[in-house]
Amino acid sequence: MTLTAQARGTIAELRESVARLHSELTRNELVVWTAGNVSARVPGEDLMVIKPSGVSYDDLSADTMVVTDLHGKLVHGELAPSSDTAAHAYVYRHLPEVGGVVHTHSTYATAWAARGEPIPCVLTMIADEFGGEIPVGPFALIGDDSIGRGLVETLRATRSPAVLMRNHGPFTVGRSARDAVKAAVMVEDVARTVHIAHQLGTPVPLSRTDVDLLHARYQNVYGQR
Hints:
The chain is of the alpha+beta class. Helices cover 43% and strands 15% of the residues. It contains 7 helices and 8 strands, in the order αββββαβααβαββαα. The chain has helices spanning 5-27, 85-94, 107-115, 124-130, 146-155, 177-200, 208-220; strands at 37-42, 47-50, 66-69, 74-76, 100-103, 136-137, 162-165, 169-174. Strands 4-3-2-1-5-8-7-6 form an 8-stranded mixed β-sheet, with helices on both faces.
C-alpha cells in the first residue's frame, strides 16, 4: 500500500499514542496479563493501529503496534494483530464517527456483563458520560466480526460509548482512542459503585429529563473549550 508522507507521519504518531494509552489500562487496573486492547482509526485512510496479540504490556512500544486495514488484514508490523481486530475493524467500517475502540475485562463491568444486566443510570456520572443506562450487547464468539456486529447494533440504539458484551466484557468507543480509554476507565468506576449501591439497598434512578440535562451539559459545556 502506497501512503503519503503525511499519512506515514500520522501513523507514526498513532502508534506512539496507542502504545502509551495501553499503560492507562494497566494503571487503572482494567486488564490482567495480556488481555485487552486499544485501537485508533487512521484519519483519511481505511486503516487502524492496534495492539499485537498476546504481547505483555511491559513489552509494548510504538514499534510493536501493528497497522491493519479495516478488514483486519495486516499492513504494517512484525507481529500478529489482536484477536479482537475483526471486531474493532467492523466498528470502524460501520460507524465513521468512531476514532478509537477499547476492550477490557475490568472486574466490575465484566461482572455486569456476566449477569447480562445493563448498568442503570443512577449516578450523575453515568448520565454525564453515558447518557443513560450502559447497555448489554449480545453474546458472540471471538475470532470473526460477530462481536463487531453486536457492538454496532447496540451502539446505534444508545448514546452510551460503552457496551457490556454478554458473558465477555466491556467495549468502549470514542472520537479518539483517548476518549475510548476514558470511557473504559469510567465504566469500571460506575460499575463498581452501582454494585456497592445494590448491596446497600435499591439505587434511585435519575429521571429522563435530568439525564438529558446532565448529558448535554457534560458533553457541551464541561471542561475547557
